[in-house]
Design brief:
370 residues, seven-stranded mixed beta sheet, three-stranded antiparallel beta sheet, 13 helices, 14 strands
Length: 370
């Protein structure tokens, strides 16, 4: 009886906390995706696991239109931001930043003992070819940057940046695609980047817990020459296991069940349709922002997964508390612009209709807060 009462209290608390997430991450996860995680547990050295692992890799290559190796390890995407640096750089790296997560990668490189040439653009601005003109000399082993900066809602052009980097020299190119992969076409075949890092809790619309990286042959070759690769993200060790559809260390199998399920849904939707859906959601939020103080990023480079809006005189805490009470949650500002912005996540399995529903409730809440 006592146990039943405890379960009842937990269930009631879950219902009370339940709300639809329009956050920057973790994002809303659909019930059927969560249900996919309840399949019976298997060991990660079994034939069943090999089939699951191989299925995921095959689908990722199809969806991202790439022949790159796809590696997975338990943890957040930051693990592979570090892994790219540890495997691809002996000494010198160029870090380009226009927000908090560009700064994080620069910090990671420094903490791993690399000499970092740092280039920064103002928060809210995209990184452009002119910003790195003449910076990629023959001492630079790799360049890293964030494609879609979630602190500012800026989507920089990978096409333009990779083009300028290649024009100057031929270093490795590492891209943080955490809030862009499967929502924005990154044109991997055209841009020929060497590491694309992402995770499960953003546009893949899954719970957090799995870091993923697409890796080029060029980076694999460089990895063999780099000292002190560590263990957990040693690409040589990972590839040896990955080629046999095994994991180096124990993976989050339940999360991988959900990932396999989710990738099937993406195949059914089609990536072109998925990219259009994300743009439509972004357009809705951009149009709505005019009712307040507009968008924070420069106009031509606004993200299709994260709307970063100017807060102006809005009492965001009061506004957000009211939204939560109605079953909706968005995100506050982040980093250096925390106090003057707030953020709306519109990625994953959300739809334009659901975004319209959120915006309608936000209109009602604005009226109440006046």
């Amino acid at each position: 009886m006592r146990q039943s009462c405890a379960y009842a209290r937990l269930a009631a608390r879950g219902r009370k906390l339940s709300r639809e997430l329009f956050t920057v991450g973790p994002v809303n996860v659909e019930p059927e995706v969560l249900q996919a995680m309840t399949r019976p547990m298997i060991t990660h050295r079994s034939k069943d696991y090999r089939a699951l692992h191989g299925s995921i890799i095959e689908k990722f290559k199809k969806l991202l239109d790439t022949d790159m190796d796809i590696f997975m390890v338990g943890g957040s995407a930051s693990i592979f931001l570090e892994g790219a640096v540890k495997n691809g750089v002996n000494s010198n790296v160029l870090g380009i930043s226009n927000g908090s997560f560009g700064e994080r990668w620069i910090e990671i490189s420094k903490l791993n003992g690399k000499n970092v040439k740092e280039i920064r653009t103002p928060w809210g601005n995209a990184m452009k070819p002119a910003d790195i003109e003449g910076a990629v000399d023959d001492t630079v082993e790799a360049v890293h940057f964030v494609s879609n900066e979630s602190s500012t809602g800026v989507l920089s052009s990978i096409d333009d940046l990779t083009g300028e980097i290649r024009k100057q020299n031929d270093p490795l190119i590492f891209v943080d695609g955490v809030t862009s992969v499967t929502a924005v076409d990154l044109k991997l075949r055209k841009n020929e980047i060497d590491a694309l890092v992402f995770g499960t809790q953003k546009a893949l619309a899954l719970p957090p817990g799995l870091a993923i990286m697409a890796v080029s042959e060029k980076l694999m070759k460089r990895s063999k020459e780099v000292r002190n690769r560590g263990f957990y993200t040693d690409l040589i060790k990972l590839k040896k296991n990955n080629d046999e559809n095994y994991a180096l260390t124990t993976p989050p199998v339940s999360l991988m069940y959900a990932l396999d399920f989710q990738l099937d849904r993406m195949v059914s939707e089609g990536m072109a349709s998925r990219y259009r859906r994300h743009k439509e959601m972004g357009d809705l939020v951009r149009k709505w922002s005019l009712k307040l103080f507009g968008m924070f990023p420069e106009k031509e480079y606004m993200s299709n997964t994260i709307g970063v809006l100017n807060r102006g005189t809005l009492d965001f805490e009061k506004f957000h508390a009211s939204l939560k009470s109605k079953g909706y949650e968005i995100s506050g500002g982040y980093g250096d612009v925390k106090e003057k912005t707030f953020r709306i996540g519109h990625m994953g399995d959300l739809t334009p209709e659901r975004v319209k529903g959120l915006l309608k409730v936000m209109d009602e809440t604005l009226e109440e807060c006046q």
